[in-house]
Amino acid sequence: MRALVVFALLAAATAVAEAYPQYQLASDVTCTGCHLSPAGGGLLTENGLAVAESSAWRGNDPKFLHGALELPGWLELGGDARLAAGMVDNGKASGAAYPMQAELHASAGARGFSLTVDGGVRRPNEDTGIASAFWSREHYVMWQQAPGETEGLFVRAGRFAPVYGLRFAEHVAYTQRYGGSPLYAEAYGASVEYVARAFEVHATGFVHDPIATAWEKGDGGALYAEVRLSEHAALGAEGKYASASDQQVAYGGITGKLYLPGPDVLLQGEGELVRRSITGDKATSVIGYLLATRKFSYGVMADIAVGHYQADTRVAGLYRDAIDVNVHWFETSHLEWLLTTRLELLDHGAGTNGGYALIQVHYRL
Question: What CATH number does the domain located at 2-364 have?
């Protein structure tokens, strides 16, 4: 009951946070080692639940509702609630609070077939009123070549975000916010995905959602491929194209991951070019993000990152740089506290800057 009350109090979501790629290579080679989805995020596998328990300061029963509800083998349930509050400086410092996520997750399946549905709430659309506050961010059917295994072929159809790039939980990372995998990038589509320890490939064709308010306004396709160069290193390539009535956007980039066992540090980087054509006017953007992560005792994980975004290479000074520092504390298998900070320099010629410091609480049902 306490868990359900916490979930209800945070049920005014405006943003979504997902999986932690910081665990890949350091804890498991593939995202499917911990998640049911071939893209990562959402419901955890048995191994993912074990990682959640072992990573926490005070590990408790990591199952749904702390194991109070016995589920049949064909059904998986979960949920996430997040809230952030702190200080934001957009030229003038002020307090801020952000309800971020309030979702329930369900997956039911047998004989390799499954149906996955996320349901939750978000900020209502001004045009459609309160009815638009209730929505399903993802809902899709999937066939898995090897049910219950972490490797093999996955085929999905429905509403989900095309797999592209590193997919950090912190959606403010420049390569996500301005690149090919921003917040609310879900679309209707079909994908063919193959995941193995040596490599993985994700190919998706999609059309935009004509009803729900979504970031993606075009139709097109996305491709992400990653090869593991060794047990602790990976290199990826990405591409995406979307065409709408008034614009066409092409994305391309590379990703890199390197785990250093000695200092126990995981390095992840992504570089991306975006070519955008709006009613004949063409512009190129350059985006980069580099993240270093280290895990400590008592359930603590720390990130430090640098980002660069040049909105239009034709215009000098039209860019922004960021330094991000995040400290995660996994108090229990279900409760996470996060201090997230950013110093952002905007248009160096003008000498402007900004930033934020926020405390986020995340409760996993």
Answer: 2.40.160.10
